[in-house]
Amino acid sequence: MVTSFAIRGPRSLLRQIREAMAGDAPAQAKLNMVVRIIAGSMVAEVCSIYLRRAGGELELFATEGLSADAVHVTRLKSGEGLVGEIVRLGRPLNLSDAPNHPAFSYRPETGEDPYHSFLGVPLLRGGRAIGVLVVQNRTERSYGEEEVEDLQIIAMVLAEMVGAGELLGQEVLKDVEIAPHRPERLKGARFADGLAYGKVILHEQPVAPEKLLSDDPAAEEIRLRAAVEALQKQIDDMLEGHHGLVGAPYEVLETYRMFAHDRGWNHSLEEAVRNGLTAEAAVERVRSEHRARLGQARDPYLRERLHDLEDLNDRLLRHLSGDGHKARELPDDAILVARNLGPADLLEYDRTKLKGLLLEEGSPASHAAIVARALDIPCVGRLAGLRDKVNEGDPVIVDAESAEAFLRPRPDVVAALDNRLAVRAQRRAEFARLRDTPAFTKDGAKVTLLMNAGLAVDLDILGETGAEGIGLFRTEFQFMVAEDMPRLDAQRALYEKVLDVADGQPVTFRTLDLGGDKLLPYMELEREENPALGWRAIRMGLDRPALLRLQLRALIWAARGRPLRIMFPLVASVDEFRAARAFVDAELAWAQRRGRPAPSRLDVGAMIEAPALLWHLDALLPMTDFVSVGTNDLMQYLFAADRGNPRVADRYDPLSPPALRALQQIQVACAETGTPVSVCGEMAGRPLEAFALVALGFDRLSMPPAGIGPVKQMVLSVDREAAQRGVISLLKGASGSVRNEIETLARKLYVAV
Description:
This protein has 4 domains: 4-163, Beta-Lactamase (2-Layer Sandwich); 184-205 and 328-424, Glucose Oxidase, domain 1 (3-Layer(bba) Sandwich); 209-321, PtsI, HPr-binding domain (Enzyme I, Chain A, domain 2); 434-748, TIM Barrel (Alpha-Beta Barrel), CATH 3.20.20. Helices cover 43% and strands 15% of the residues. The chain contains 26 helices and 22 strands. Helix 11 (343-347) links the parallel strand 10 and strand 11.
């Protein structure tokens, strides 16, 4: 059976609905008109709209064909009846004999006894079913694929119209769960300390209601096809460019290619566009259906496929926009919400307006979390189901002290937050008063506190922190925020500015630490099966000497006769350091031949992150001018636990005997050879962990700016010799983490941790 609706297409119907909504009729009259229009267009004897109440019940809000007396009377409990089944499944239900379906729930007040055929589709917003749209007929028949497709398109637009308040007023919708609106508290993991209160900004922006419908379906179809073809070519090129790639990385790319070329996915997109949706709206509709279907899956494999589909949809939207990196306007109190973020994604936002960050996934040691700490942006991650529990503009609290998020918080919760913010402001004032106080322990040991940085904007606060220099400048950030590879002049200009702002204070430049989770869009880098152990950092520099030598040339040029400190990341063998240092010597000679002033002093060091170096310090240290312990990577390699994998990232504690003994071994070896050593991992910026480092003998710590005040307060309150005796004794015979014991020791010694 071909309906007149199928001939005209849903666009004509949607125009009729919009026209009906433009009048001054009461809300219920408008809704009644909507179901009447849909029933007439689909040649259906019944059309009904059910909306979801806050308690989960589905209420009949309007009907054409069923008894008018049932409107606002018939309510189905969560999961009850065919309508409840549609919400539970998140997909259409197409039945030729509905009364005989096991989920059928008979409600005599509706008068639906004569109707056999049944087609219901969910009203989806952001993967959440906010209601159900149903058509019914007396004859026993299954609705055709085109009819199902058309009704889904109508349902999508209706859901957005309802959610935007175009279909019903807020008074009518006050108890309808169009979107999450009740206060909710989510527990996660602390990624970056702090408190913040503001409005939700969604990293994945939904398509605005006014941009759902296209004026030219043919042109939209051309746009869609061009974007899909570009996406398919991009993925095909990725596969063809990785000859010999096997195992998990190849399977990931193959999965992307399978989805990108999937006929069902492409057909759904094309049909939605032909029926009047914009290309972006078509992508959002497909995304919403995938979330609804796979979001409830318990099978980890299926949930992982949802991540693949999310990524594919994001890629397609970027191809459609033509500029996926355009900066967004933010309110002054923006709280960014995302499923996950790469470090470059976060850097695209205006840091002066971004007050907090909430993530569904990630780990405290991920580079996005490191960037959040560097920018002093409170961040809580691993908040299950977060994205589908918030709306753009919702008020939200980021409580990174207790690792919680308060969605749409009650007034008393906001008042309590204000009190806590006042206390934090008081503590910040105390730290500010200590800014110019030298960091000496109570027994006279000097501890040098340095700042981690990576962007030019970080330099603005160097003087405010009381840091005695920059112990780690992450040079890769300049590459991650650029549209293409920074040239020699751009690199030199940044390094020169860093040295100018430091004004004689020491600055340690770490050469490019790319690879792993820091992939650049303009560089052909492989998706590796084990990226943390793969082609990254100094390994990439040695294999691409032009890239490394260009950076070294820029650093030497920027020094202009001033002291220069260069440090190589992830050195795993003495031979690697020897080869890297040879490039420094070659570039220094190149500069001198051309009459450029050499640095007044050139110190070259290595980061100790690979455990292999622990047993080769006797050969390494005499070759270096200094070393720095990168505890983030050292710990993940020491405990064989990927710090970017939330399942295992918290399986180890750096305050445990193996970790502390490894650190002690490094400190002792450096002391014996007179090699300057610092710690620049995340441990250095947390007072309790820094207390343990000072007790082990470390006297140079580099940390995020926000950590300097608390760590300085700790240093000023500690007796180093007493701390050393206590911590060393705790390592004897301990079978697990000694965090609690170290904290107890610190409190006994009246240390501010």
